[in-house]
Write a structure and sequence with these properties.
The complex is a heterodimer of chains A (484) and B (430). By secondary structure, chain A is of the alpha+beta class. Chain A has a domain at 213-362 and 379-481: 3-Layer(aba) Sandwich (Beta-lactamase), CATH 3.40.710. Chain A is built from 18 helices and 19 strands. Chain A has helices at 2-29, 31-36, 41-49, 87-90, 101-105, 107-110, 118-126, 141-151, 188-195, 217-226, 267-273, 276-286, 288-298, 317-320, 324-331, 341-352, 388-404, 464-481, and strands at 55-56, 62-68, 76-79, 92-93, 99-100, 134-137, 156-161, 168-174, 235-237, 241-243, 250-252, 264-266, 356-358, 363-367, 373-376, 381-384, 416-426, 429-440, 445-452. In chain A, a hairpin with a 7-residue loop joins strand 2 (62-68) and strand 3. The longest helix of chain A is centred in the N-terminal third of the chain and has 28 residues, at 2-29. Chain A starts with a helix and ends with a helix. Chain B is mainly alpha-helical. Chain B has helices at residues 3-27, 34-57, 65-83, 85-112, 116-119, 121-133, 169-187, 189-194, 207-226, 230-248, 252-271, 273-283, 294-306, 329-362, 366-390, 408-429; strands spanning 143-148, 151-159, 162-167, 198-199, 202-203. Chain B has a 3-stranded antiparallel β-sheet with strand order 1-2-3, with no helix packed on it. In chain B, strand 4 (198-199) and strand 5 (202-203) form a beta hairpin. Chain B starts with a helix and ends with a helix. Classes of the chains: A alpha+beta (484), B mainly alpha (430). Chains A and B meet through helix 1, helix 2 and helix 3 of A and helix 10, helix 13, helix 14 and helix 15 of B.
């Protein structure tokens, strides 16, 4: 009988072994999937037991914080006291909709370190900080408020930078949403937001690229100046229609008229008046390759190094080479050129910062529960986009555009303001109204990009100068007026 | 390993249990309390007395039996305490009672020898079958059955309108049936091995031989159908198959039995809702997450949350698992001690299998061989069925995890099984 008994024992041990294999699979291989499944009640329990650190603006206004849950002694609720104001920059941390924006990217630092997970133990051994950390943003509450007020009721974005450091002073996408609606255990409000055709959840500052229109002429001008192909006094034929070689298409100015007096027009006047006929020609003169390289120098065709993921702006250099008509249209920011507001703000910032492109950043410091500063972010130079000489010329041109060109609505008394308007034609819709520019006072400076989608309330009558420039004015003025 | 080393291990198990309990209270923010001391005392008392009883009445028994049992019991006590301190104190009482009863059985067997069981084999068969069917008694009677969670497995003793005690006679019935089977099969062994009747190429035993077995098979189906206990019927089948195979060496016997059972179960699944639901929950738990799949889903969540080293005693949320102290005690331990703990438990049961079958192989007469193998198998199959069910390898059943699940009847029955096994081990080694 020993043989069958031995075999029976063997079978039992094999089955027990299979149990071990199955356990290994369930607990280690598939384990994380079960552990993180939203239906696992532990997930909700852990989230509400975690105190996250606060997120504050540069002035110390609280944009996000964990409030004790009135219903229970141990739990916390994530609250956003400023509601819609910082929704796209700060994001949200919720059970049902996950984490977004800075709440997501800095989730680890913000979360309390009181869980005894493997990584928590390693952190303690290595000396990495534990416990909830707070982060201070570069955003200015005052400027952000002005951005929200100025854009109210229209779809678009406002983003403002400090040109010499890259600090983001304003970061607003409209329409916005109240992140407090996403916190909690009911998905209804969040589902409504997601289904809203106006796309309030879309971050229009970094996640959407639109045709920049004439605001792109800053880059076209930069390419021409930098390569020596033109200077502010270079003269161009002043025509109502620019013929495009090898094509029946033509380029016209916005008012279908001439740029100057109908004979010849200077480079600087063409910039001031945003003449398409001249800049189309300049584009063909410079050529797709050089134009593309200049765009790349300003940050195009690559994701922007930033705390949040970004959609790269597009200048399709290789498809334009050998195609002058397409190049001409691209040189005026139409055809397939697409840019994000953050990218265009960086263009303006680089111009006024002596031609040096700075890395934009939202988070200036991390601090612990006792307000000790754990780390600080410093300015980082990305690269030199244009030479100081070219930058100086571009600065002058942009100041002229605001003093006496298409951007007069952006002028601020007692400050140096420069900029470039853009009215991006969209076939079948109202145009996008753009303004990119800068303002400098004795103590402060700011660069900004404003876009109002499809003209906003002005609709087909919209131009960059009429719709976007006034918004840029009040936003920049708000910064110049702050004491801090 | 010597008896003294065994004693040291048992002391270690008592310390482990006490330590576990104080870790749990510490996780709750308090210092060690009476429970720590009580756990230690009860463990020491129970296993200490068993140890002394072994020295007296099972001197040459394997010294590994008790420590393995004590380890598993310790883990069970700690986790039950973590889940429900009230249940833990009841379980401690049951441990004392189970140990006392086991010692009593051991003393009886020492006095009369295990051969006495041979003489009363049909008594054991009847007692076992009756015990299985007792819960079918009307619940109005003083000693009547009662349905719990959809299964009719419990017997309750009532007087003056209150329930004095409730137990599951099916638990002890399993042990009784093993004893019957061991002696019956041992005496018929020759006939089983040399049977020449055939259906086609498959050898089958003489029909007459099979009568008691057939009766038992019918009972298993009755249990399935009327008492709605899929687990007990699976267990009975597996037990019969295993012991038949061990006795005869012919795979055909258990295969035929298994085939018949599968036919019976499939028919039952078609005809009876509750069986179908078990299979649905097993195969597609996520389809009806909120209802039939809920239990197994919560078990999977717990297992995954435990990961490699567990959430920590007292730091996990096994309270989210339904029936955590009974059916899902293993999932609760797996959550708080991780893969490390759950594998350790399976390893402990594997060790028990090794020890028990070692006794069986060393035995010289068929009866003791089968008795040792059978007792070990019944413990092993219970562990396999419930761990398998909780990890979705098998359909979920109400089988208890020996020595770990909260439940007096199970503890009593399994302790007695260990005592009988120890006595056999002693007789084999002498």
């Amino acid at each position: 009988m020993n043989t069958p008994i031995r075999r029976l024992a063997f079978v039992l041990l094999v089955v027990l072994g299979i149990l071990v294999l199955n356990l290994t699979y369930l607990q280690v291989v598939a384990g994380p999937r079960y552990r993180d499944d939203l239906r696992n009640p532990r997930v909700a329990a852990a989230r509400s037991a975690t105190e996250r650190g606060p997120i504050v603006t540069r002035e110390g206004v609280v944009a996000a914080e964990s409030m004790p849950d009135p219903a229970s002694t141990q739990d916390f609720i994530r609250a956003y006291p400023e509601g819609t104001l910082f929704a796209h920059a700060v994001g949200y941390s919720t059970l049902l909709f996950g984490d977004a924006a800075l709440e997501k990217e800095f989730g680890r630092e913000l979360s309390s370190g009181s869980d005894l997970t493997f990584s928590g133990i390693i952190d303690a051994l290595v000396g990495r900080e534990q416990g909830a950390q707070g982060i201070r943003l570069t955003l200015s509450h005052a400027v952000q408020q002005e951005a929200e007020r100025a854009l109210a009721g229209q779809a678009g974005a406002v983003v403002a930078l400090e040109p010499s450091t890259g600090e983001v002073l304003a970061f607003y996408s409209s329409p916005s949403f109240d992140p407090n609606l996403l916190v909690g255990e009911s998905a209804e409000a969040g589902d409504d937001l997601a289904a809203d055709p106006a796309s309030p959840l879309l971050n229009r500052v970094v996640d959407q690229i639109l045709a920049p229109g004439s605001s792109f002429k800053v880059i076209t001008a930069a390419a021409a100046l930098e390569s020596g192909l033109a200077n502010p006094d270079t003269m161009y034929p002043d025509v109502t229609e620019l013929e495009l070689p090898g094509s029946t298409a033509v380029i016209r100015n916005a008012d279908r008229g001439t740029c100057g007096d109908g004979t010849q027009v200077s480079f600087s006047l063409a910039f001031r008046r945003s003449c398409n006929t001249v800049f189309g020609q300049i584009g063909m003169d410079v050529g797709a390759g050089l134009l593309g390289a200049t765009a790349d120098d300003f940050g195009y065709n690559d994701p922007i190094p930033f705390e949040l993921p970004t959609v790269p702006s597009v200048f399709p250099t290789s498809s334009l080479e050998g195609d002058p008509p397409a190049t001409a249209q691209s040189a005026i920011g139409q055809r397939d050129v697409q840019a994000s507001p953050l990218q265009m703000a960086m263009v303006a910032a680089a111009v006024v910062n002596d031609g040096v492109l700075m890395r934009p950043y939202l988070v200036s410091e991390r601090f612990d529960r006792d307000l000790n500063i754990l780390s600080q972010t410093g300015p980082v130079e990305l690269r030199r986009a244009v030479s100081p000489g070219t930058a100086a010329v571009l600065t002058e041109l942009m100041i002229d555009a605001v003093t006496s060109g298409t951007g007069t609505a952006a002028a601020i008394p007692a400050a140096q303001v420069g900029g470039k308007t853009g009215t991006a034609e969209i076939p079948g819709s109202a145009p996008h109204a753009w303004f990119i520019g800068f303002a400098q006072s004795e103590t402060r400076s700011i660069a900004v990009a404003v876009v109002v989608e499809n003209g906003g309330t002005a609709g087909t009558d919209a131009t960059g100068g009429r719709v976007a420039a006034p918004i840029a004015r009040t936003v920049m003025a708000a910064w110049l007026a702050t004491a801090q | 390993m010597t008896r003294n080393a065994e004693a040291a291990l048992l002391a270690g198990a008592a310390v482990l249990a006490a330590l576990g309990v104080s870790i749990v209270t510490a996780a709750g923010g308090d210092g060690p309390d009476a429970n720590t001391a009580l756990t230690f005392v009860v463990m020491a008392l129970s296993f200490g007395s068993l140890h002394l009883a072994f020295r007296q009445w099972a001197r040459n028994a394997s010294p590994y039996l008790l420590p393995i049992t004590a380890l598993i019991t310790a883990v069970g006590l700690v986790e039950i305490y973590r889940l429900d301190p009230g249940a833990a104190s009841l379980q401690r009482w049951w441990l004392l009672i189970a140990s006392a009863l086991a010692i009593g059985v051991l003393a009886l067997l020492a006095r009369y020898g295990t051969d006495v069981l041979l003489r009363y084999r049909y008594l054991f068969l009847t007692a076992g079958l009756v015990a299985f069917m007792l819960p079918l008694l009307p619940s109005a009677w003083p000693l009547g059955g009662v349905e719990v969670n959809g299964s009719r497995l419990w017997l309750q003793l009532r007087a003056f309108d209150t329930t004095i005690v409730r137990f599951q006679p099916g638990e002890i019935a399993k042990v009784l049936l093993v004893v019957f089977l061991a002696s019956y099969l041992a005496s018929r062994q020759g006939a089983l091995v040399s049977s020449t009747r055939r259906i086609g190429r498959i050898t089958i035993p003489e029909p007459r031989q099979l009568f008691p077995l057939a009766a038992a098979w019918v009972v298993s189906l009755v249990v399935l159908v009327y008492q709605r206990d899929l687990g007990a019927s699976l267990l009975l089948l597996a037990l019969f198959a295993a012991m038949l195979y061990a006795a005869s060496g012919r795979v055909s016997y258990p295969l035929v039995g298994a085939g018949l059972f599968v036919i019976g179960t499939v028919a039952a699944a078609r005809l009876f809702d509750h069986v179908q639901r078990r299979f649905d929950a097993w195969l597609r738990p996520w389809d009806d997450f909120a209802d039939s799949g809920f239990q197994i889903a919560q078990s999977l969540f717990a297992l995954g949350s435990g990961s490699l080293t567990g959430s920590g005693l007292g730091l996990g949320r096994p309270d989210f698992i339904p029936s955590a102290t009974t059916d899902f005690i293993f999932a609760a331990v797996a959550e708080e001690t991780g893969l490390a703990g759950s594998v350790a438990i399976v390893a402990a049961y594997s060790l028990l299998v090794t020890v028990g079958f070692g006794v069986s192989l060393r035995a010289r007469d068929p009866y003791r061989k089968l008795l040792a193998a059978g007792l070990t198998t019944v413990i092993a199959i219970q562990a396999i069925l419930i761990i398998g069910g909780v990890t979705r390898l098998l359909p979920l059943t109400g089988i208890t995890l020996p020595f770990m699940s909260y439940g007096g009847s199970s503890l009593v029955a399994n302790m007695i099984a260990i005592a009988v096994l120890a006595r056999v081990s002693h007789e084999v080694a002498s």
